[in-house]
Amino acid sequence: DTAVSQTPKYLVTQMGNDKSIKCEQNLGHDTMYWYKQDSKKFLKIMFSYNNKELIINETVPNRFSPKSPDKAHLNLHINSLELGDSAVYFCASSGGGFGANVLTFGAGSRLTVL
Amino acid sequence: QKEVEQDPGPLSVPEGAIVSLNCTYSNSAFQYFMWYRQYSRKGPELLMYTYSSGNKEDGRFTAQVDKSSKYISLFIRDSQPSDSATYLCAMSPPGAYKYIFGTGTRLKVLA
Fold this sequence. Notes:
The complex is a heterodimer. Chain A is mostly beta strands. Chain A has no helices and eleven strands. Chain A starts with a strand and ends with a strand. By secondary structure, chain B is an all-beta fold. Chain B is built from no helices and eleven strands. In chain B, the strands form two sheets. In chain B, strands 2, 4, 5, 9, 10 and 11 form a six-stranded mixed β-sheet that branches. Chain B is globular. The chains are: A mainly beta, B mainly beta. Chains A and B meet through β5 and β10 of A and β4, β5 and β9 of B.
C-alpha cells in the first residue's frame, strides 16, 4: 500500500489552463505539505496543513490554491498556468507533534506547461 | 545567503569508495536534521534522521551533526552503483513544520 499517493503522475497542458493535483496519505499523519522541485532539484515548501488548517503559506502566487477536505487529503489547484509553473510537485506528510517527525513524500507530479 | 548550503556536485566516485556529503547552515535554531535520497524521477526517501548534535549509524550510512560549526555530514561506506542518486539534506527548528532543504548533491558511483 502506497503511503503517500498523488495523482496524476504527469500533466502536460497549455498556458492559461487550470489544473489540479490530488494527494492522499494513509499513514494517519496530521500534517500534509506541498513542495515544488525545480529543474535544479531545489525543494521549496509551498503550503502546509495541520488537521485541515493552513499553517504554512509561503510566498506563492494566489493562482495556487490548496484545499484539505480532511487530514488524509490535500489537493492543489492551479489557475491560469504559466510556463514558470513547470516543475515537479511533491506532496508529503508528517505525523504527531511539532518538528520531531520526518517527512514522507509521494512520488511527485510532473507538470509541463507549454 | 541561503539558510542551507549544499554542493550540487556532481560527485563521481569508484565503487567501494567512502563518500562524504555535507551541508552547512546558518540558523542556529535548527535541531532536527535529515538526509534524503532521491533517485531520478522518484520522490525523496528518508535515509537518516538525527536530533541535535552527534553521530548516528545505520548500516553503511553514518550521519554526523556538528552544531557548533553548523555543519552536517553523511558518510557512505563501501559505495555501490545503486547509491547513485541525489542526496538532499533537510533541517528544521523545534516547534515548526517548516523543513528547509539543501539543493542536493548528485552522486554517481562508477562500477
